[in-house]
């Protein structure tokens, strides 16, 4: 994830009060937070690879946190995961770590400690965290190889077009403003205006249209741009 974009956190917990409290608190800490209330939804969202860290409760309806984590690692999703559980037994913690968790928090926990763990995980992940593959439906954005595929067909993008699509798919389901795109894609370059963002979004959209993926990139009038699909629209809770 680019440094000029807020860290993106997925909170998967079946307790509405916990989701609301963590969403409010983490947003106050400068993070972009998305929540899910069950295992299958959490798996679908985390499977996009578009989060910097996942806070994953173990006891979830539909699919346990253990199984969600197991599936993510099996599918090659390397996003850091902090397991959250009311169980504090050594065996429970060992099981989670063996499955690929990056940490384990026991309820009830201090919010200050949770934030410290999240920031520590983000630091440890470092630059390599932004090199995994982002997925949105059949669209795959390989940040390591700098390639984009729709199903098996490659979508040829210029470096700037790739950077723009990477930011949008990297925040799939969340509206990204023109100013955020300017900062993330063009940085401190002089004489760059919002109109240039519109031009490059148009370039990317036309190339996605050419392979049948144009519907994934939408304009949200007065706000910015959104990368999403029908399945993500159904489950995401900003």
From TrEMBL:
Domain Response regulatory span(s) in chain numbering: 8-122
Keywords from the named record: DNA-binding, Phosphoprotein
DNA-binding region range list: 131-229
Presence of the UniProt keyword DNA-binding in the record: yes
Domain OmpR/PhoB-type: 131-229
Any Pfam family: Trans_reg_C
Source organism superkingdom: Bacteria
CDD domains from the UniProt entry: trans_reg_C (cd00383)
Keyword DNA-binding: yes
Coiled coil: none
SUPFAM superfamilies, per database record: C-terminal effector domain of the bipartite response regulators, CheY-like
Modification 4-aspartylphosphate occurs at: 57
Xref: PANTHER family: REGULATOR OF RPOS, TRANSCRIPTIONAL REGULATORY PROTEIN CUTR
Listed name of the protein: Response regulator transcription factor
Source lineage: Bacteria, Bacillati, Actinomycetota, Actinomycetes, Pseudonocardiales
């Amino acid at each position: 994830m680019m440094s000029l974009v807020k860290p993106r956190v997925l909170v998967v917990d079946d307790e509405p009060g916990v989701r609301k409290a963590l969403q409010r608190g983490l947003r106050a800490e400068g993070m972009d937070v998305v929540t899910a209330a069950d295992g299958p939804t959490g798996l679908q969202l985390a499977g996009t690879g578009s989060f910097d860290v996942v806070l994953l409760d173990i006891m979830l309806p539909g699919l346990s946190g253990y199984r969600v984590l197991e599936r993510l690692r099996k599918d090659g999703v390397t996003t850091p995961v902090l397991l959250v559980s009311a169980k504090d037994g050594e065996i429970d913690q060992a099981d989670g770590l063996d499955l690929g968790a990056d940490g384990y928090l026991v309820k009830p926990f201090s919010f200050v400690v949770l934030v410290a763990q999240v920031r520590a995980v983000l630091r440890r992940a470092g630059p390599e965290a932004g090199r995994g593959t982002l997925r949105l439906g059949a669209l795959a954005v390989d940040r390591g190889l700098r390639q984009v595929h729709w199903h098996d067909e490659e979508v040829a993008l210029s470096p700037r077009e790739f950077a723009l699509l990477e930011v949008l798919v990297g925040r799939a389901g969340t509206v990204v403003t023109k100013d955020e795109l300017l900062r993330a894609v063009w940085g401190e370059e002089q004489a760059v205006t919002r109109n240039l963002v519109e031009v490059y979004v148009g370039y990317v959209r036309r190339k996605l249209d050419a392979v049948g993926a144009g519907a994934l990139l939408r304009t949200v009038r007065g706000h910015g741009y959104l990368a999403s699909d029908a399945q993500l629209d159904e489950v995401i809770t900003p």
